[in-house]
Design a protein that fits this description.
The complex is a heterodimer of chains A (258) and B (270). Chain A is an alpha/beta fold. Chain A has two domains: 11-78 and 156-257, Rossmann fold; 90-155. Chain A has eight helices and nine strands. A six-stranded mixed beta sheet of chain A has the order 5-6-7-3-8-9, with helices on both faces. Chain A has a three-stranded antiparallel beta sheet with strand order 2-1-4, with helices on one face. Chain B has a single domain (55-267), classed as Orthogonal Bundle (MetI-like fold), CATH 1.10.3720.10. Chain B has twelve helices and no strands. The longest helix of chain B is centred in the first third of the chain and has 35 residues, at 67-101. The chains are: A alpha/beta (258), B mainly alpha (270). Chain A binds chain B through residues 62-64, 80, 82, 84, 86, 88, 90-92, 101-102, 104-106, 133-136, and chain B through 163, 165-166, 168-175, 179, 183-184, 187, 190, 265-266, 268-270.
Chain lengths: 258, 270
């Protein structure tokens, strides 16, 4: 299947809705009038130039930044998983107890949370390292642990702030594959911030291209992975999708400089 | 052999258990032996009198003449120093914790804690004798007052200096203020707390000896120092001072050992 034309998700079907959202830090305007919907169980990638406000949008959705203008609708009961650019593991805890942290804070009994932490670690192929400490793990293994921690409370919304950005290409691709498998199994609403358009096209169903700061939506591109059927799309389809997203991004950069 | 294999070879030699043990214990022992040799050498070479600088053997002789007197004095000083240190550690950590949780009172109370650091002990010690009388309570109070400030300051710095990224993680996981304090701020501040405790360990011994100069009703090391000073027994003064230093080393060593055990699991990663 050839990638379809850019479409906006109807807000009525969205589990998360941003309408006319703007955000500024002092005199620096980070996000301007962004309206976006994220359908239940969808996988969306936000791409844009460095410092354009991608992370700010993710942090607004996660409640880490205060909404200044516009509205944000998200079911308050929807559990949230968040993976940051760094693993953010507690150095004094072993990997199992790091992964179990969200359950611990939710008051889940020790035996249950340990069992679920091991399950989550198995899903990211890290069960062997359960009793090791963060300093004993490689960068890729730490990021796997961070993904396991984000998934352990079976979140309905998963927010990923360029979690693999600092890793080498091979590890990054390996973790991309693991993430896609996890998403296909869990089907939670996933929003990924990334600099890499190929990574966005490979992982997400939809790419939202943002302008240089202040972030505005300049294009929404549906990717071939939407079909879930590898036989119906080709590398050429993926390439076309990457090209369209790149073109939109370059156009937005050129317009911002004009 | 290339550079890399050379460095690997040298690392493997340094990693051998015997070499590690020598580095940990042998080197400090050699340094102590060197200091004693230097002391003896200065005395012989410059012909310093016994009154100004007794020989190491004279000091040892002073100790072996009355070992029970020195040992009981050391035990008494060590007890007061340990108790003063323990009160300073517990009180300092508790006070700093309260100040970090209730930021409003921090502004009022923290400047007052500076008094512990600013008021000269020699001025306050007589007051302690008036309040607590002659004996252990006054001496322990002296040790506590001298050693509590580094514990408060370092604990507070550790509690305030937690990783902003980890704090954000706790926010997104819905942790409350007290939970974040208990599960993030306190464990994060352990290295700072241990630094404060190490400083306090030495100061507690100093405070104890100073307190003993003024407020003791027994014969601890502080009293032996002053009485031997009056009778010009310099070797005996040296013996008492060295034993006081041993008390300080023992306290410091205990805290360092505790720190090594507590931090060994994760400090290696930093």
């Amino acid at each position: 299947m050839i990638p379809t034309a850019a479409t906006s998700t109807p807000l009525s079907q969205s589990s998360i809705r941003l309408e006319g959202v703007s955000c500024a830090f002092g005199t620096v305007e980070a996000v301007r009038n962004v309206t976006l919907g994220f359908e239940e169980g969808s996988f969306t990638a936000l791409v844009g130039p460095s410092g354009c406000g991608k992370t700010t949008i993710l942090r607004l959705i996660g409640g880490l930044e205060e909404l200044q203008t516009g509205s944000l609708d998200r079911a308050p009961t929807a559990t949230l998983g968040f993976a940051f650019q760094e693993p953010r593991l507690l150095p004094w805890r072993n990997i199992r107890d790091n992964v179990a942290l969200p359950l611990e804070l939710a008051g889940v009994a020790t035996s249950e949370r340990r069992a679920r932490a091991l399950e989550a670690l198995e899903r990211v192929q890290l069960a062997d390292a359960a009793l090791r400490f963060p300093y004993q793990l490689s960068g890729g293994m730490k990021m796997r642990a961070a993904i396991a921690r984000a998934l352990i409370s079976r979140p309905r919304v998963l927010l990923l702030d360029e979690p693999f950005g600092a890793l080498d290409e091979v590890t990054r691709h390996e973790l991309d594959l693991a993430l896609r498998k996890l998403w296909e199994a869990e089907r939670c609403t996933t929003i990924l911030v990334t600099h890499s358009i190929p990574e966005a096209a490979f992982l997400a169903e939809r790419i939202v291209v943002l302008s240089p700061r202040p972030a505005r939506v300049v294009a929404e591109i549906t990717t071939p992975t939407l079909t879930r059927d590898a036989t119906t799309w080709t590398h050429e389809d993926l390439g076309a999708c990457v090209r369209r997203a790149s073109d939109a991004l370059l156009r937005a950069i050129a317009e911002s400089r004009a | 052999m290339n550079t890399r294999s050379k460095s690997n070879a040298s690392r493997s030699v340094a990693d051998q258990p015997a070499m590690r043990a020598f580095a940990a214990y042998g080197v400090p022992c050699l340094a102590a032996a060197g200091a004693v040799a230097l002391w003896a050498g200065i005395k012989v070479v410059f012909g310093v009198s016994d009154y100004l600088l007794p020989s190491p053997l004279a000091v040892l002789h002073a100790f072996t003449e009355q070992p029970s007197l020195y040992l009981s004095a050391t035990a008494e000083t060590a007890l007061c120093a340990a108790l003063g240190f323990a009160i300073a550690a517990a009180g300092g950590i508790a006070l700093a914790s309260a100040l970090s949780i209730f930021r409003v009172i921090e502004r009022g109370i923290y400047p007052l804690t500076l008094l512990f650091q600013m008021v000269p002990l020699i001025a306050i010690a007589p007051l302690l004798v008036i309040w607590f009388g002659y004996g252990r309570p006054s001496i322990i109070a002296c040790a506590t007052i001298v050693s509590i400030f580094p514990v408060i300051a370092n604990t507070l710095a550790g509690l305030r200096g937690r990783d902003a990224g980890l704090e954000e993680l706790f926010t997104i996981l819905g942790a409350g203020r007290l939970t974040t304090w208990w599960k993030l701020a306190l464990p994060s501040s352990v290295p700072s707390i241990l630094t404060g405790l190490r400083i306090a360990a030495g100061l507690a011994t100093i405070g104890t000896i100073a307190g003993e100069f003024i407020g003791s009703d027994q014969k601890p090391l502080g009293v032996l120092i002053t009485s031997n000073l009056r009778s010009s027994q310099t070797a005996a003064v040296f013996a008492s001072v060295l034993l006081a230093a041993c008390v300080g080393f023992a306290l410091f060593g205990s805290v360092s050992l505790l720190g090594r055990v507590v931090l060994s699991r994760w400090l290696r990663g930093r």
